[in-house]
Amino acid sequence: MKTVKIELREVKLATLSGETRGWLITGENEVIHGMVHPIDGDLFTISSTTDPRIQAFGWCPMFDSLAHVQNDLEIALAMTSAGEVEQWIEDSDRYDDDDHHGHLH
Question: 19 forms bridges with which residues in the sheet?
């Protein structure tokens, strides 16, 4: 499967209760594709207001490690459309449509 190289660059994110850790998802030429946010202790989610390939993961996808985030995004960002990413997710074992509204685990 085709992949692209990305970097997860650690940054400080503002919250109502103070700052927290987060990561910028950067690609070639330091283009920012989105962000990684910690949730529920050891889980992470991704978001983007500009890249439909990240948006294709759905609302609040959950990942168990930053390595899992990086691996999946290096595959997804090599794809040419959100539709291609959605199909890849649905065809993989990453998609759980039983009780979790399509969230990733």
Answer: 14
Burial class of residue 102, CB neighbours in 10 A (0-12, 13-18, 19+): middle
Q: Are 46 and 69 in contact (CB under 8 A)?
A: yes
Return the residue matching tokens 């990305």. 6
The H-or-E segment that residue 35 falls in is: strand 32-39
Predicted TM-score (pTM) of this structure: 0.85
Token code pair at residue 101: 């509204």
pLDDT tens string 14-70? 989 999 999 999 999 999 999 999 997 789 999 999 999 999 999 889 999 999 999
The percent helix, strand, coil of the chain (3-state, each to 5) is 25, 30, 40
CB of 74 closer than 8 Å to CB of 4: yes
